[in-house]
Structure formats: C-alpha cells, structure tokens
Amino acid sequence: MAMDLKEIEALIKEALPDAKVEIQDLAGDGNHYSATVTSREFLGKSKIEQHKIVYNSLKGKMGNELHALAIKTKE
Amino acid sequence: MDQQVKDLINNEITNNEVCLFMKGTPDAPQCGFSMAISNMLKILEVTYKGVNVLENQSLREGIKEFSDWPTIPQLYIKNEFVGGCDIVKEMYENGELKKILENKQIKFKK
After folding, report:
1. CB under 8 Å to A51, separation ≥6 — which residues?
2. Main-chain phi, psi angles of B67, to 5 degrees
3. Computed from CA positions of residues B52, B84, A51, A72, in that sequence, does the dihedral angle turn out positive or negative?
4. Fewer beta carbons under 10 A from the terminal one: N or C of chain B?
5. Cβ–Cβ contacts within 10 Å for residue B62, how many?
6. Cβ–Cβ contact B36 with A under 8 A
7. Which ipTM did the prediction report?
8. A60 CA to chain B: closest CA distance, Å?
9. What does the domain layout of chain B look like in residue ranges?
C-alpha cells in the first residue's frame, strides 16, 4: 500500500508544528520519498534522535505502508 | 523479542567491529540502501561483516526492535548503532564517518 505525499507531510507537522517539510516523490510510485525536515526541535539532539522523531511522527508506517523515505533533518 | 534473536544480534555486534545488518550480502545486496552503505565501506576499505536479514525473518524484525529503528540497513561500529542509510551517507559526505572510524580505531583507507 502506498502513501500520499500530503499524508506524510501532515503527520510530520502534527508531531513538529514548527517544521518546514519538503517532500519529493522520487520514483512517482507513491512509495519512494525523500523528506527534508527543518525544525527547532532538533537543536541539541543527535542525528539518530532527530531521525527517530521523524520516524515516530509517522506512527509505525515507516517500513510498512511506506517502503522508502530518505530523511534529511536540519536544525 | 525472542531471547535467541537478541543473543544472535549481540553476538554479531560484539564479534564484528563493523557490522552491517542488510538486505542481501556485501557481494550481492538486494536493496539500493543496503548497497549504498556497503559501497561506502568498500571505498573506505573497511573490513565488515554483512548480516543478511532476508535469510532470517525473526532477525529482520528483531533488529528493528533491538535498535529501536524501523528500517534496514543498520550499521553498528564497536557495539554502537551508528545509523541507517541516510545518516551514514551524510556522515560519509561530511567526513564524520572517518572520524568515528578513527576514534574507534578501525582500520580504513585515509
């Protein structure tokens, strides 16, 4: 099952209200995305913690409905 | 998580200084993200153990719980989870990966 770009953006923004989210559908198949997330919440956190925040915002969809989401986080 | 799986993971990351949980093998990766980390380690001439999670379904699920990380590949250096494909790629590009290898006294091509 594929996921809609808007749905991904909404989930991330729900967890990180201040976030600037840029998402690209890499293959045009609704299954391979790349997201750049910029948020003040990331300040002082390790990359692993930052990516975990994004993964958690997707509520378990990562690795299931969503096969591939390349993540880049910025403070 | 199954104790057997937990022991298996602990053994792999303890006995191999650089351990990559991946889909496929270093010689024949089955996923682009696994291939990407594999290639970076090869370019740096790092000796690493590739653990193919496709051969073991309980390991494939277990490693996600073990690292609290939802995707594969996952790179461990000296017992420590370093990251998945995006993080390792970023660290490779900005030189941090070399720093970690150096700090952990892993041999690589400088």
Report:
1. A71, A73, B83, B84, B86, B87
2. -90, -5
3. negative
4. C
5. 20
6. no
7. 0.86
8. 8
9. 3-103
The residue of chain A with its CA nearest to that of B69 is A52
Q: For B5-57, what is each residue's pLDDT tens digit?
A: 999 999 999 999 999 999 999 999 999 999 999 999 999 999 999 999 999 99
Asked if the structure places residue A4 within a domain, the reply is no
> A70, B85: Cβ pair inside 8 Å?
yes
C-alpha B58/C-alpha B105 separation (Å) is: 32
Q: Do residues A61 and A25 make contact, with C-beta atoms less than 8 angstroms apart? A: no
Residue B75, classified by CB atoms within 10 Å of its CB into exposed (0-12), middle (13-18) or buried (19+), is buried
CATH class of B3-103: alpha beta
Q: What is the CATH number of the domain that holds A66?
A: 3.30.300.90
